[in-house]
Amino acid sequence: MPSRRRGRRPWASEHPELDLERARGGSRVEHGPDGDWVVRTVGAANATKAYLCPGCRQEIPPGTAHLVAWQQDHLLGPEAAVGDRRHWHTGCWRHRGSRR
Ligand SMILES: [Zn+2]
User: How far is the CA of 5 from the centre of ligand 1 (A)?
Assistant: First the structure.
């Protein structure tokens, strides 16, 4: 029985991609228990509207840095996925898995 490879944390390799992330306009792919998500950071300067966060059901006021996420493998394709995108508080997105 093969031993588990310890010390090779898959998520540890994501940090060097920060430059690539910036080159792609701030979007990255996150692999969660609920699928693969494209996540884009929205800076405070670009947050010009109020959104309802699906994590806490509270408003994200304009001028608040947050993020927007959509499913990478949407049944109806990438355009539908972007149409279904949701705006999240950064903290709510990080903790979404533990809220269930
Ligand atoms: Zn929230």
Answer: 36
pLDDT at 78: 85
pLDDT less than 50: residues of the chain: 20-21, 99-100
Q: How many A from CA of 49 to the centre of ligand 1? A: 15
Number of domains in the chain: 1
For residue 34, the model assigns a pLDDT of 83
Distance 53 CA to ligand 1 centre (A): 5
Instruction: Please count the helices (runs of H) and the strands (runs of E) in the chain.
Output: 3, 6
| Beta strand extents in the chain (DSSP E only) | 27-32, 35-42, 51-52, 59-60, 66-71, 86-88
State the distance from the centre of ligand 1 to the C-alpha of 87, rounded, in angstroms.
9
- Which residue range is the domain that position 46 belongs to? 22-99
Residue 4 lies in a domain: no
Ligand 1 centroid vs 8 CA: distance in angstroms?
A: 32
